[in-house]
Every structure is written in structure tokens, then in C-alpha cells.
Amino acid sequence: MILFDSAQQCCGCTACMAVCPTGAISMETDAEGFYYPKINSQKCVNCGKCRSVCSFQNGYNKNTVLDAYAIKHKDEKIRLSSRSGAAFILISDAVLEQGGAVYGAAFDDDFSVSHRRADTKTERDAFKGSKYVQSHPNNTFSEVKHDLDSGKTVLFSGTGCQVGGLLSFLEKTKTSAENLFTVDLVCHGVPSNKVWLDFLDYTRRKNGAKSVTKADFRDKSFGWAPHFESVWTDGEKHSSKDYAMLFYANHILRPSCYECIYANCERPSDFTLADFWGVDSIVPDFNDDKGVSLFFVNTQKGQKLFDSVKQGCEYKAVEAERCTKPNPNLRRTTPKPNDRDAFWKMYAEKGFDKTIKTYKRKNYAKKIKAKLHLP
Prior knowledge:
It is a single chain. By secondary structure, this protein is of the alpha+beta class. Helix content is 33%, strand content 21%. The protein has 13 helices and 15 strands. The strands form 4 sheets. An 8-stranded mixed sheet has the order 6-5-7-8-13-14-4-15, with helices on both faces. A 3-stranded antiparallel sheet has the order 9-10-11. The chain has a two-stranded antiparallel sheet with strand order 1-2.
């Protein structure tokens, strides 16, 4: 059984692994550190379920935005501990308070990122904050199915491709999604855990430390808009834009991200979340630099849930179409750099340290040229 013809056709959502009736599929990393399905030919019975479940290749059920909002959680402490306006906390609190389960991305012990299940707010708090790396869903698709079959209310959050994969898996396994709420994130693209872990080790070695003790993507102590990664080594904090530079240069994104089918306003989920970039021009005097969420309600089921919790936030209705210009991944995919192959060739031959130093110089030279209006 062949699942895809090129890396661009696989988003790594794990739906194929979850749906396989014989457990013939496992997820293994390639040279860039991205997970791809591998089929054990001795277990495979050629049933074709793995190909039919792939929403990235076969498409997904699209929801048109019903309502769009700018949102700030009323509890400032909660908002400051979240990446943007803490809209996810508002929704997930409601699910947890009715005895439901929440799924999201969290740091593992080694600071890689994977999906896990939470039954309590304390467990759920590990999902706070953006994770600028691809999370591994592990076996959460099957866990969601088990929860739904048991009658639990479930909230699943992830990238558009992860939500699309989960919904396709549930449909193919004839699992009722009546008690399921989904939240997708407006996604620029996902780097690999390999690059992130190499960056952490680079920071550790640069500071002569024994271990990384804490990490924070987009440290909010610098404000809502700036992008600094902070890494604590042996308890000492170090902040830089090195990782952010690699992220926004687009070299370290998964190949499928450059052909993402979810980069539009037709969403697979009940809710869509993003940092509300451009909020000052759309909702004047709403931004206090402590975080504002752009929040789309895409289904009637989602609208009902939001109506039940909206008293916990400040919100302003906005036109979804006006939000797409400052949030470009709502209207287009992230472009693939012309020198992506050259970047990964250098990475493989010279390692992280020399690669990041080279591309920091290139990035600096590019900024100087732009400032001086040079060709």
C-alpha cells in the first residue's frame, strides 16, 4: 500500500495510523525530523482505509464562518498566562466544568511537543501558549473516539490538518461527533521537533549549562506582539529571536505546509483561533498589549457553546473578511523559499550551529538591503 507520492501530500496527522485495523502503521521521523507513516507490509491487508481517511489528499467538510469576534478574557491573570486573548481557556473551561475532556499540545519532559488529554484545568493549563513546532498527536485520535463512545463531551484543539484528520477518522469509524467540539488554529506552518530541540541544545551549550530547565515560545513578558523565545538553562533565562528568525524565513516548515488546503476561511472546525493581528485598525482602542484573540464561530453547535460562556470575556463582533489581510494564512499558504533545499543540505552537512549562524548573516544582510532599498 502506498499512502502518498511525495512529502507534500502528507501532513502527519496520524489518521491513517489510527484507522488501520491491523496496527500496521507507525509514525517515524525523516531526516528533517517530521513524522510520516510507515507501513509494516507483514501486517498490512491492503484494505485501503489508510488512503480513504486522508483528508489532506481527499478534502474535508468545510464550514463558513458564521460570526467573528475580537476577544479578551476578563481575568487578566489568565490572559497574561495565555498566548493571545485566552479564548481557548474560556471554551475549554466550559467543557471541563461539565465533566468533559480537553485535548491539546503540551511540552514533554524533553521539551518536544505532543498532544495529550486533560480532565482538569490544571492539566489543561499545559496547553496554554502557542507551540511553534509540530505536535505529535500520539494516540489521541483513538482516545477521542473512546471518550465519545463513552458519552463524554470532548474539546479537541490543533492545527487545521489535525482537526481535519480527526474528523475524517471519526467519520470513517462511524463515531458520533455530537458531543465533540473542535478548535483549529490559523497556522503559518509547523517546524519539526528536531530543529526546536537542536535550538534548545544550542542555547544550552552556548551558555555552558548542564540542562534546559524551562522553555517558552513567544515570551509574553516582552509584550503581546514581539516574538522572543526564552530558554532557561540551569535556571537562568536567555531570550533571543534566533528561532523566530528561522520560523519566519519559512525554511524549517513541513513540506505539506507550502500546499496547505486549510489556509482559507472555510474551516474544518467549530471554532477558529488566532492572534488578532491588525486589531488596532479593525477594533480601535481594544488592544492593551496583553493579548487579543481573533475568534471565528463556524457552526451552530459552536455558537451555542460560545453564547453560554461569552459573559466571561470582552468581545467585539468583526467582519471575518476584514481580518484576512493582516492574518494572511486565512487567504493563502506560506510560500516555500527558493533555497529550502540548500538550507537542509547545509543543516545535514554542517549541523545546527553553523546553519543558524549562516542564515542569521543572510537575514541581517537582507534587512540592510531592504532598509537601503537595494536590489
